[in-house]
Amino acid sequence: MTVFFRVLAAPVQDKADKLRSAVNSYADGKDAPDSFEDDADSFARIPGAPFSYWVPLRIRQLFDAPEGFESGDRVARKTNDIGDNFRFVRLRWEVSESDSWRPWAKGSTRKFYSDLDFVVSWDRPRRTYRGFLGTPHRPMERPASVDLFEKPGITWPLRARDFAPSVFPEGAIFSVRSFVLAAPASDLRWLLGLSASRVVDYLYKVLLGRFEFPEFVVTAMQRLPLPPSLPSEAKHELAELAVRAWDAARTIQSQVETSSEFVLPPALRSRQPGLSIAEANVELAHLQQRIDEIAARLYGVELAQLAPSTEQHDYTDGEPDGADDATPDEPEQSVVTLNAQDATISWAIGVAFGRFDVGLATGKTELPSRERDPFVKRAWRAPALTDGVRARDVLVDDDGHPADLVHEVEQVLDDVGVTGVEGLRPIIRDHFFSSHMQAYGRSSRRAPIYWQLATPSSSYSVWLYIHAFSKDTLFRVQNDYAAPKLAHEERRLESLTSELRDRATASQRKQLAAQEAFVDELRAFLDEVKRVAPLWKPNLDDGVVINFAPLWRLVPQNKSWQKELKTTWDALCDGKYDWAHLAMHFWPERVVPKCANDRSLAIAHGLEDVFWVEGTGGKWTARKTPMRSIDELVRERTSPAVKSALKSLLEAPVASGAARKTKKGKANA
Q: Is residue 230 in some structural domain?
């Protein structure tokens, strides 16, 4: 036997004294705190032989089990890094549903059910990300473990306080920061239940050799032992409990606006039948307790033997999602949960634009039936979403205008009986866009779906809804909103000037100066809209930030967002994002020749067959003679009107009040 003394918890300066005291107590035959007598040879029972003197021998013996989580048809795997998330990855709500995008698991720390907020550009025939040719360090056309992509399984994050397995549905793809355990359909439910237990969490951490800030690597899952005996009735009960826990967990997410389960915001959620959020939390905690009891019985351990779990069942607030894979050590970022009032306002804005169905709150619309199989392909559209046919692309912050956003929101709130919201106009004008960007962002990616284009003082704003706008939207902003508003305010200015003349009081002169400043802001706003409108050709597949970038001068009210857009615009001008549709629209003379030398760009723009040919062994080479000439391809993609408008945009001065008061915009075409 070997004696071990544990002084890890002691401060560095006290470790020596604590160890000396413990050794002396043990030598004198006294009770020595944090001392362990153990057979060091028994450490070898655990794969990797971690230094686990504090782990009870009974638990070490579990690793002698003949069968593990990976066995037979059950396999645990990881994949490789994409290397360019900005190009290949989007948030689900910034693109339209299509076969080109697949749900992308990034390692949520929620158990049982986790939202798949990200999607990845997927080329099913080539079985890889669209245009993906590997990374400089690992060139390949197909990701590692691609055979498990789109197949149902169990996924978990690399980093979390406690092991957090959740459903990996059919049709999804996993990232380098999340892993998958694939198994026959008959095993998935009970495996989900068992793996979510405190016992498995403890065994996983024993394998890893650490309990604080563990990384749940896939190799440990491959060696994780199953209970010595797993009778069919135990599997059946675990499976049933897991499905119920999955259902309760997704019920909790039904109040989160970005969730694919979203029904209504917290203040209105009780208007639809089913478990309340509070009841779902209680149910989830009860199910977790029952799962823990069954797992402890199957493994033959007492829950009291396990290290105290730090797991918390506060499922009402967003928990950290997996970090964006762009850098291995990028910090995780929590999902922002709006307070009840802000969540209600956000929902009402969605109703005003035609995104959400108000009937779910008034009782005129029945909640669609919910899928009961956790592992089938997950619906893209949340129950709250409308079909989008009657969605509106433009609303304005303009009191008295027929399309006034604030009036529309007030009407929605009145229709559902919500009262007591004070200061709605300043909330929407000055605060909503910032909170919206936070709520609709994950990791380092921000993807607002409602765009506030404003004057520097925010005294006038135009709001756009990305899933309704078209190439004509900015012309409508110009002709139907901004120009009439400017004409109206110019008439007011003329009237004030004529009325007051030399007999104006100090207060009236201040009013006149304010009106003059407002008119100047509106003129600058309209001028900028006129510059951008001829260029406007949105393609949601490019992502929000690329599409929004040419409008960077129109968001002076939000300095951080303007800076991000300006940085993106400069990078776009410099040729860093030539895979984007917008780059081809603006600079075909630059992008088309690149497609002849860069196959990934050729794939992105549908020119692979023109410039490249597949040879023996699946190797692709550049054609000596393209199927069509570069000059011809450039000509058919070049518009003199676009070129003229682009020149005007690039050379335009930055309006006063914008984030960067330079004399010129980015001027390299």
A: no
